[in-house]
Structures are given as structure tokens and as C-alpha cells.
Automatic annotation (TrEMBL):
The keyword Membrane belongs to this UniProt entry's keyword annotation: yes
Recorded family membership: Belongs to the major facilitator superfamily. Proton-dependent oligopeptide transporter (POT/PTR) (TC 2.A.17) family.
SUPFAM superfamilies per record: MFS general substrate transporter (SSF103473)
GO BP term, example: oligopeptide transport
Taxonomic path: Bacteria, Pseudomonadati, Pseudomonadota, Gammaproteobacteria, Lysobacterales
Pfam family, one: PTR2
Compartments it resides in: Membrane
Protein origin, superkingdom: Bacteria
A single GO molecular function term of this UniProt record: peptide transmembrane transporter activity
One term under GO cellular component: membrane
Protein name per the record: MFS transporter
Transmembrane spans: 20-38, 50-69, 78-97, 103-122, 143-163, 169-188, 222-240, 246-265, 286-304, 331-352, 364-386, 398-420, 432-451, 471-492
Keywords: Membrane, Peptide transport, Protein transport, Transmembrane, Transmembrane helix, Transport
């Protein structure tokens, strides 16, 4: 194992404590403190909007960080600079717990800093391996994901107590201190790292190849017209900013450009061979196929990230000890991850291989999406009991948490290494950014679904079902994930994995 890996792992442990420490108390803090200006009945809804808008930012800015690292500064310097912004943002949260402008500025800087480094730490760790020891990379990625949850576990247990028993300043200040320590750990390994230099301007880059494919005339220009439709839809989405608000409108615009532009490019990709080598063209084809995988995973993120918003609000309605805070249920998720990762690798996967079933990375992700849907069916059944007036102990949430965590291990832990291994060498940072962009899109679906049920017509249809708004949305998201899992399974049968670890 490369001797520099412990510095990266230690950095990740502290950074994840910092991030989840503030994230897991964000919703209850907003409801109980920062949003007191709003009518009580509206605070939970506003808190969910703020939370998921923040998460969208966290997983949108990886595009910026990935580009800067791949083309300008390299991964190490980009991580360091964005980490400093991250530290400043955490500091602002602690300083402005009673000032919305200052607090939201801190959230923005955290989204920028955390998002900027998010695609890079994992891919930077991947850079420390080559073909001679790539078998150890899978172990390192599992350790990487395990340590993420180690930090998240203690943050989920301790920060809600700090918020209730002490003060918001302390509850947000501790994560800030941990982020500073994380930055120091990463800096300490600077002389031991393998540094992959930023790629120079490439005439055969992804965008150049795609541009050639779209705008080289041919017998049929259907792909070009489809790309134009994507740009037109993007403009339409931006025009809806007053209705959708800025963040959802921008995200929808990005989805339109990527989806229609990518499909249009795939239809005419062979035209690019007139100006670009076959290797570059096939690299673009591999990326486009990978983006389809990422798109089909977005429903999973819709369900997964609501455990810190929707499920916390559900726990508020359940019976629990006086000392127990609803947000502390989230500690169950990282605790189970820390158990399931070694259990799966040492017991479940070898047992399945023994019976002739090889659970490949892409198969794991497909099953994971399906298990997330099952988790939300259980959550919806719990909500039905609550709505019917049955006192429900918060321990009932253990079952949906267990199912969702098993899904997370299959999708998220597997996806990190999968995304790195499938990415062409010149696009590691950007491809990892697209992986995280799938989280942004997942949270976008949450915002749009929550906004839609405020429409009187939609609300009328919800009432006709006899379900509460909360229960309806839970079953809706469960169905969303199960349909995505079925489509993912069909696509996975055609997907051919590649190996893009560096040679030396």
C-alpha cells in the first residue's frame, strides 16, 4: 500500500466529520432557530428547500473543481485552495447563527469548497496507484468509504447533542475546527504524493470531439438538431427562474444540455474520425456510455439524501426517549456502512461467487437502486401508521435505514472506484465531477417533486388517493427508484467495462 495513503484517509475522516457534523444538524437548526420568522407550519418545508438547495450546490461545484484540477492547477493545489474556502465557510456558520445573510454565505462557501474538492480527493487517491498495485486500489477505496462513515458516525451522534445541550455556535464551530485539521493532514503528505500534472490543451478533448461530431455535415444531421433542442430547453428552463428559483432552473438547464447534447453527439460520433484519432473518438464514446449510468443512478440520490430531511422530520412525529434527538437516527447509517463493507467483502460476495454469481460493479449498483426503493416503501408504510394516529416508536426507522444503507454500499461505495476506473486518463477529475453531478440531479428531483405538490391541481390528486402529502411523496420516490432500477438492469447487460488505471 503506498505510504502516502494514510494522509489522504486521515484528511477524509476529519473532513467528513466536519461536513456531516454541520449537515446533519442543518435541518433541525433551521426549523428551531433561523427560520423563526416564518409561520410555524411553513418552517419544515422551507428547511427542506434550503437543505436540498445546499446539497445541490455541494454536488454541482465538483464540475468547477474537476475542470480547474484537470486543466490548470492539478489536483493537489486545487484541493488545498478549495479546502481553505471550506474552512472560511465553516467559520461563518459559527459566527452568524442569528444572521441569515451571514449564515447562507457560509453555506455557499461550504458548498463551493466541499464541492470543489469532492471529485478530487478520491481521484487523487486513485492517482497513487498504477497497474502494478491496482488490486490494492479497491481495498483503499473501500477504506476510503469506510472512513467517510467513521467520521459521519461520530458527527451524527455528537453534533445534535451539542446543538441542543450547548449552543449553535459550538455545534457549528466544532466542524470548522475539524475541517482545519483535515487541511493540515492533507498538507503534511505533500512531499510523498504522486502528482499527475494537469493535461495541456488538447485538440482531441471531449468537447472538441463532440463539437466536430455535431457540426460536421453529413447525410443526416439529426444529432445536431437534437443538440439544438437541448440548448433551447436550457434557455426555457432559465426563463422559468422566477417560478422554479435560480438553482433548480440552472440544474434543469444543465440536464437538458447534457442529455440532448450527449445523445445528439452519440448519433454522429463517427463523423469526428475525420479530424480526431480513433482513440479520442472511442474515449468520448466511453464517457457518453458512462453518463447514461450516472443518469440512471440519480433516483437513488433522490431517496438517499432525504434521510437528512424527510426522515428527520418523520422522526419528529415518532415516539422516542426525551434525551434522543431525531437527527441522531442518522448515526445508524454510517454505523451500518462500517459493518456492511467488510461483511460484504469477506462473506456475502465470496458466498455469491461460490454459487456462480459474480456481483460486478454495475450489477451492485443496479441492485442498490432497487433496495433504496424498498427502503422508501417501508418508510411510506410507517408514515401511513403515523397519519392514522398510531403511536410509532422511532425504532421502526431502523428497518428503512438498514435497507437504504445496504443500497448505499452497493451504489455509492462501488460507484467511486467504478467511476475512476472507467474514466479516460485526461478526464479523471471531470468524470468524478459528473459522478457527483448525479447527486445534484437527484436532489433536483426532490425540489421539483416538493414544489409540484404545492400546485392546487396536483394537491387535489394527492388528496384523492387518501394519502397525506408526506406518504404520497414517499411512495412516489419508491416507485421512481424501482422503475430506474429496472431500466438500469437492462442497460447494464449491454455495458462493457474498461480499465483506465495508469500504466506506471
Amino acid at each position: 500500500m503506498p505510504r502516502q495513503i494514510p494522509f489522504i484517509i486521515a484528511n477524509e475522516a476529519c473532513e467528513r466529520f466536519s461536513f456531516y457534523g454541520m449537515r446533519n444538524i442543518l435541518t433541525p437548526f433551521l426549523v428551531s432557530s433561523l427560520l423563526l420568522y416564518a409561520p410555524e407550519a411553513e418552517r419544515a418545508g422551507i428547511a427542506k428547500e434550503v437543505f436540498h438547495t445546499f446539497v445541490i450546490g455541494v454536488y454541482f461545484f465538483p464540475i468547477l473543481g474537476g475542470y480547474i484540477a484537470d486543466r490548470i492547477l492539478g489536483k493537489y493545489r486545487t484541493i488545498m485552495y478549495f479546502s481553505l474556502l471550506y474552512c472560511i465557510g465553516q467559520g461563518l456558520l459559527a459566527l452568524f447563527v442569528d444572521n441569515r445573510i451571514g449564515f447562507y454565505t457560509g453555506l455557499f462557501l461550504i458548498a463551493l469548497g466541499s464541492g470543489g474538492i469532492k471529485p478530487l480527493v478520491a481521484s487523487f487517491m486513485g492517482d497513487q496507484f498504477d497497474q502494478s498495485n491496482k488490486n490494492l486500489a479497491r481495498i483503499a477505496f473501500d477504506a476510503f468509504y469506510w472512513i467517510i462513515n467513521f467520521g459521519s458516525l461520530f458527527a451524527s451522534l455528537l453534533m445534535p447533542i451539542a446543538l441542543k445541550s450547548h449552543s449553535p455556535e459550538l455545534a457549528f464551530g466544532i466542524p470548522g475546527i475539524l475541517m482545519f485539521i483535515a487541511t493540515v493532514f492533507f498538507w503534511m503528505g505533500r512531499k510523498r504524493y504522486v502528482h499527475v500534472a494537469p493535461a495541456p490543451a488538447d485538440p482531441h478533448s471531449f468537447l472538441n470531439v463532440a463539437r466536430t461530431a455535431l457540426f460536421t455535415p453529413g447525410a443526416s444531421n439529426l444529432g445536431t438538431y437534437i443538440a439544438y433542442v437541448g440548448f433551447a430547453l436550457a434557455i426555457a428552463a432559465l426563463a422559468l427562474t422566477p417560478v422554479l428559483h435560480f438553482v433548480p432552473a440552472v440544474c434543469l438547464a444543465i440536464v437538458a444540455v447534457i442529455a440532448f447534447g450527449g445523445y445528439g453527439t452519440s448519433l454522429q460520433l463517427d463523423r469526428a474520425r475525420t479530424k480526431h484519432p480513433d482513440e479520442a473518438v472511442e474515449g468520448v464514446r466511453a464517457v457518453l456510455r458512462l453518463l447514461i449510468v450516472f443518469a440512471l443512478i440519480t433516483p437513488f440520490w433522490s431517496l438517499f439524501d432525504q434521510k437528512a430531511s424527510t426522515w428527520v422530520l418523520q422522526a419528529d412525529l415518532m415516539v422516542k426517549p426525551e434525551w434522543f434527538q431525531s437527527a441522531q437516527m442518522q448515526a445508524l447509517n454510517p454505523a451500518l456502512v462500517m459493518i456492511l463493507i467488510p461483511l460484504n467483502n469477506l462473506l456475502l460476495y465470496p458466498l455469491l461467487r461460490k454459487f456462480g454469481f459474480e456481483l460486478t460493479a454495475i450489477r451492485k449498483m443496479g441492485f442498490g437502486i432497487a433496495f433504496s426503493g424498498l427502503a422508501w416503501i417501508v418508510a411510506g408504510l410507517i408514515q401511513l401508521e403515523i397519519d392514522g394516529g398510531t403511536p410509532m416508536s422511532v425504532t421502526w426507522q431502523v428497518l428503512p435505514y438498514a435497507l437504504l444503507t445496504f443500497a448505499e454500499v452497493l451504489v455509492s461505495a462501488t460507484g467511486l472506484e467504478f467511476a475512476y476506473s472507467q474514466a479516460p486518463s485526461s478526464m479523471k477529475g471531470v468524470i468524478m465531477a459528473f459522478w457527483y453531478l448525479s447527486v445534484t440531479i437527484g436532489n433536483l428531483w426532490v425540489l421539483l417533486a416538493n414544489a409540484s405538490v404545492k400546485n392546487p391541481t396536483v394537491l387535489g390528486h394527492v388528496k384523492d388517493t387518501g394519502l397525506s402529502e408526506a406518504a404520497f411523496l414517499m411512495f412516489f420516490f419508491a416507485g421512481f427508484a424501482l422503475v430506474a432500477a429496472a431500466i438500469f438492469g437492462l442497460y447494464a447487460k449491454r455495458y462493457k467495462s474498461v480499465d483506465n488505471y495508469r500504466a506506471v
